[in-house]
Amino acid sequence: MARPANRPSLRHHRARHDVRHSSRRVGGEFRGLAWLVRHPLFALVPAALIAAAVLVGALPTLIAVAAMALMVVVWGRLHPPSFDRLAAPTLRATWRRWTTYRGRRWATLLADCGLAQTNHHTGHIDAPRVLRVRSATPSIDTLRIRLTRGQDLTLWTGRTEPLADALGAHRVAVARQRPGVLNVVVERDMPFRFAIPAPTIPASAESVDLTALPVGEDEYGHPFTLGVPGRHVVVAGASGSGKGSLIWSPLRAMGPAIRDGLVRVHVIDLKGGAETRRGVPLFHRHATTAAEAIALLTDARDEMKARQQHMADHGLRRLEVSTETPLDLVVIDEMAMLTAYGERADVREALRLLAEILTQGRACLTAVMGYVQEPTKDVVDVRELFTTRICLGVTAASHVDMVLGDGARDRGALADEIPGDEAHAGIGYMIDQRSRLPIRFRACQVTDDEIDELVARCAPPAPPELRAIDSTEAA
């Protein structure tokens, strides 16, 4: 029986499905050429040295190279601040890229951590490629990595702990930079070996920048700053984590503005004033009982409403800080005593007033800084209304995401692993608004003597009516 003309033969059918793809890799010469295109300096530097040796001689070229190396060494020993700022990050990043983050060693490390695949035919490891290495400090490397096909952020987030152990690092944090590219932060060591000294009190109110008050240092060695106007700050941390540092450091950084009437500080301390009593002369109001706290919040809310009316009457969208419209800063130490653990009627009224201030105070220069040990929703019902959130050392892993947002701990904000001793007080995390990565910082340590110095130099003059009362009592 004749086979239909349009039906392929069985032999042809089998041949078509038995075709094997070649397991050979691209030729080494072409892979080398592609590598040189991606790393042009590797070819240009030797070529420049050879050209210099031909044109001026081998000995002068050797002397010039040795002189440059000696200059770098002398620079690093003679003026470490400028060397660490300008040269060390580039040299350190180049060294670590070549010794750790490239080649078969890097590919094998990723394969062992489940982040790369090995081709069983060729033995070649298909590993994500490092596009860029930055090493701002000796303890921090920032990598930009191109993913291989089939990988995503969740895969890397789930493998950060094995990757940190394989690199011998303290922690690894991962965030998505753009499609197919991740930012990976490798923290090799604990960066804060010493306490950060208290902020210097500025010489005048003109030198105070309320939008960037220096209150510590971040893990890259940069100043860690807090903005107050238009922001509401919540600081969460267990007892002994260093919350007091973030109460007094901003006040020292804005001291002359308090003295000159540009900032009015309203303090609520329902622990009997234990933390804040030393600075009472600085404060516009100081509340140590629930009734005083409710009255303080009521006055702050009423002042905010009056400013809103003023803005409506004059067609203003926001106010500028001045002696006529000073920044009203409400500081609440141990906020849970006000929002959860007090009398039910007081708690309900305090939450209502706080919600009004937190939702409407931005444009009319009313800001809140709250400090709490337990950041759960039951304790701080208005937690989501704070625009700047800081997490110091806490006692539970779940507290990290409660403060910094979902997934913050998976991205490296290991605040629950910060030791609770005095040597680690003031260390915490905040989310960088640009990269969405957790940034670790250490707040300045402020002693009692430095609080006394702040009071002596920056306490505002008493209002005229109080001065009249004092003079009458003196007579």
What is the approximate shape? elongated
First and last CA, distance: 133 Å
By secondary-structure content and strand pairing, the structural class works out as alpha/beta
- Give the strand content: 15-25%
Placed side by side, the strands forming the largest sheet appear as: 8-7-16-15-14-9-13-12-10-11
Number of distinct helices: 17
The average pLDDT is 84
Task: From the alpha carbons, calculate the radius of gyration and give it in angstroms.
Answer: 30 Å
Oligomer: single chain
Unreliable spans are 10-19, 464-475
Q: Helical percent range?
A: 25-40%
* Biggest β-sheet strands, sense, barrel: 10 strands, mixed
Number of separate strands: 16
Overall description:
It is a single chain. The protein is an alpha/beta fold and 475 residues long. Helix content is 40%, strand content 19%. The chain is built from 17 helices and 16 strands. The strands form three sheets. A ten-stranded mixed β-sheet has the order 8-7-16-15-14-9-13-12-10-11. Strands 3-4-6-5 form a four-stranded antiparallel β-sheet. Helix 2 packs across helix 3, helix 3 (40-56) packs across helix 4 (58-78) and helix 4 packs across helix 5. The longest helix is centred in the middle third of the chain and has 25 residues, at 290-314. The termini are far apart. 33% of the residues are buried.
Q: Which short descriptors sum up this protein?
A:
single chain; 475 residues; alpha/beta; ten-stranded mixed β-sheet; four-stranded antiparallel β-sheet; elongated; disordered C terminus
